[in-house]
Amino acid sequence: MPELPEVETTVRGLERVLKGRRIARIEARRADLRRALPLDLGQRLTGATVTALSRRAKYGRIDTDRGDSLIFHLGMSGRWRIDPGDDHKHDHFLLTTDDGHVLALNDPRRFGSLDLVATDEIDSWPAFAALGPEPFDIEAATLHRRLAGRKAAIKLLLLDQRIIAGLGNIYVCEALFRARINPKRSGGSVSRARLERLVRTIRDVLVEAIAAGGSSLRDFASPDGELGYFSKRFDVYDREGQECREGCGGTVKRIVQGGRSTFYCPRCQH
DNA sequence: AGATATTCCTGGAGGC
DNA sequence: TGCCTCCAGGAATATC
C-alpha cells in the first residue's frame, strides 16, 4: 500500500522523465476516480510544461507553467508506470511527453484520486488545508500539544492526517514499535520524552523505507515498473505470531483498532 | 470528543 | 478446477 515513502519514490521517479517536459497528450479514461475530473482537464494540461514535482503527505504534485497543479493520491493500489508498453487493465490516466515517454496511472481498486487545482490556491484546496505538519517538519513539542488531552489511542491519532500528515498503517506500527510505545495507550498520556523518541523513530523508519526504494508490499512497483522490493523487512507489521525481533522472547500480536490491524509486541511496548 | 460503522473497489488467499 | 467468502487499505462521511 503506498504510504509516504512510496509516494516520495514515485515522485522522484516521475521527475526524471517529466520535469521540464512539455505535455504532448492526455488521455483520461475515467472521469470518476475518487472525485470528478474537470471537463477541461485535457485542454489545460496539453501543451503545458511541467515546472516542478513534489510531495505533500501522501499526495504527489505536478506543477505546470499554466498555473495548474495535477495532484494524485495512490490510495491503496495506485501506481505510475513509465513507458508501460502494452496496455494494462486499470490504466485510468495516461500522459505523453513531448519526447515520447508515456506515464500511466494504474489503480485497480480506485481508492486513489486525481485533481487539477490552481497552483496559487493550492494551500486552501480542502484536502491540503486539512493536513497537519509533515513528519520531517514536526517537532516533538508540536506533537505533544496536538495530543494533549486526547483520550483516543496513539495509534489512531497518528493515522489522523490532521494531526500529522503522511503516515499510514504500516509505518505507524513500525514507528511505535521502535519507540516502544503501546499502540493502545491514549495519545494524551505519552510523555514529552517519549514523543521525542517517537518523532525520531518515525523519521528513521520513513528515511529507511525511502532509501529502500519505497516499501515492499507485494504489489508495489517503482515508477519504471520494476517489481517490488523485499529489501525492507518489517519488525512487526504482518508478523502476527512470530517472535519479536528485539529478542525479548515475546510474540508479535495483532489487534484491531478503528477497524484496521495493529501489530505490536506486548512485551516491549508500554 | 470519541467510538464505531459504512462506503468506495478489486484481487488475492483460503476453505470446501 | 471453480466457486464462495473474507480481507486488505485511505479518506470521507454518518451516527450515536
How would you concisely characterize the structure shown here?
By secondary structure, this protein is an alpha+beta fold. It is 25% helix and 21% strand. The protein has a 4-stranded antiparallel sheet with strand order 1-6-7-5, with helices on one face. A 4-stranded antiparallel sheet has the order 2-3-4-8. Strands 9-10 form a two-stranded antiparallel ribbon.
What is this structure's SSE topology?
Blueprint: H1 4-18, E1 23-28, H2 41-45, E2 50-56, E3 59-64, E4 68-73, E5 79-82, E6 91-97, E7 102-106, E8 113-118, H3 126-129, H4 140-147, H5 154-159, H6 169-178, H7 192-211, E9 253-257, E10 260-264
Antiparallel strand pairs: 1-6, 2-3, 3-4, 4-8, 5-7, 6-7, 9-10
Helix pairs in contact: 1-7, 4-7, 6-7
The chain binds a DNA duplex (16 and 16 nucleotides) through loops.
Task: Trace the largest sheet across and list its strands.
Answer: 1-6-7-5
The CATH superfamily label of the largest domain reads MutM-like, N-terminal
The string of secondary-structure elements, in order, is HEHEEEEEEEHHHHHEE
Structural class label: alpha+beta
CATH class of the largest domain: Alpha Beta
> Shape from CA axes?
elongated
CATH topology of the largest domain: N-terminal domain of MutM-like DNA repair proteins
Which residues sit in consecutive blocks of at least 5 with pLDDT less than 50?
215-231
Give a short account of the largest sheet: 4 strands, antiparallel
By DSSP (H or I, 4+ residues per run), the number of helices equals 7
Distance between the termini: 27 Å
- Taken together, the total number of domains comes to 2
What fraction of the residues are assigned to beta strands by DSSP? 15-25%
Mean pLDDT: 87
The overall strand count is: 10
Helical content (DSSP H or I, runs of 4+): 25-40%
Provide the CATH architecture of the largest domain: Alpha-Beta Barrel
The radius of gyration is 20 Å
